[in-house]
Amino acid sequence: MAGLVAAAEAVSHGAEVVVYEKGDRPGGSFRLSSGVVWRHLEIEDFRAECPAGDPALQALVHERLDADLAWLEGLGAPVIERTTGNPRTVGMRLDPATTIAALASHGGELRVGEPLHEVPDATPVVLATGGFQASRELVREHVTPEADSLFLRATGWSTGDGLRLGLSAGATTTAGLDELYGRAMPAPPARIGEDRFVDLAQLYATHARVEGADGAVHETTTWSEIDVVQWIARQPGARAAFHVPEANLQHRVRGRTVGEMVAAAEAAGAPVRRGSGEVAVEVVAGITTTLGGLAVDTTARAAGGVWAAGADVGGISTGGYSSGLAAALVLGRIAARSALGVA
Ligand SMILES: Cc1cc2nc3c(=O)[nH]c(=O)nc-3n(C[C@H](O)[C@H](O)[C@H](O)COP(=O)(O)OP(=O)(O)OC[C@H]3O[C@@H](n4cnc5c(N)ncnc54)[C@H](O)[C@@H]3O)c2cc1C
Fold this sequence. Notes:
By secondary structure, the protein is of the alpha+beta class. It has helices spanning 2-12, 43-49, 55-74, 96-105, 136-142, 161-168, 226-233, 258-268, 324-340; strands spanning 18-21, 36-40, 79-81, 89-94, 109-112, 125-127, 151-152, 180-186, 209-212, 217-218, 239-245, 252-253, 256-257, 272-275, 278-290, 301-303, 306-308. Helices cover 29% and strands 22% of the residues.
């Protein structure tokens, strides 16, 4: 997302742009996402929910998102809904595939299947490789010793290239390198293709008792349940069980009942036990993006000649969760303008 945004912004200022894309298609994890680009209603809510993030970067995302969404719409991104379906947030739901096509058509030369291997000497570069969640080694080093057991709920291409390239150019990292965003997903032997990353998410920890393999219990503290997935990611085998009293199966979470989410997990092949007035669903932590990354200033500059955006950048959601797509959109545009030296 962030790289395509930066490219479209740079081209609009007359720059000649080349977009290197490691994968076999543009759009990264954005293509697999729900496409909800959002911000907290009030900046105070953002600060309270992500208390260890950089207040200046958070203010940028908060203040610029609405105008940047209008810009995106102006490029031809189709809006599916002008609400997020969550009363705590505002934003839009976009159709990822057509938004990616709209951005790509405005964004210069796109070289699909060509990774960026090194920072060019004399040309400004915007790093936007989407974080390091697909590198088991980096996730084990920074996030959890259970890295091998995590379910990768993202593309396989975001292996920390931006982090490596940024550090090699003299950039530094933010706090929160150990933080991840993701969802509890049906545990093996469930089979989950990338087209099921959204609808198989098990988002009902607030209606369940969450128990790790060794009997440890976690009390949910957030509406986004980010604390839950981070906790599960550090349990043995990155697994837990959601014990749901039968009476709670009828509760609705973001348009679905708990019972529907349980049934979807069961149909996908996850271990589900019923009896004694409850249903127990085995889940595994699914990692979507890492949240820590390169430190940038409010011009998105990470080092001399190097700017960064999207999940390669840390310091925005630190201590909680905010929209990764919103940060990618806002920082992507800022990075392009800064790299070109335009206001
Ligand atoms: C199932 C799912 C649901 C989600 N739902 C939401 C949601 O509703 N709202 C929200 O805000 N966020 C959501 N997200 C998260 C969101 O998709 C990410 O935060 C966002 O895509 C990050 O943008 P990015 O540009 O950093 O990374 P990406 O969009 O992943 O793009 C990074 C790109 O860099 C490429 N790349 C990697 N290494 C290199 C290299 N060396 N050279 C060249 N290219 C490289 C990758 O192939 C990829 O195309 C969801 C994600 C998933 C998977």
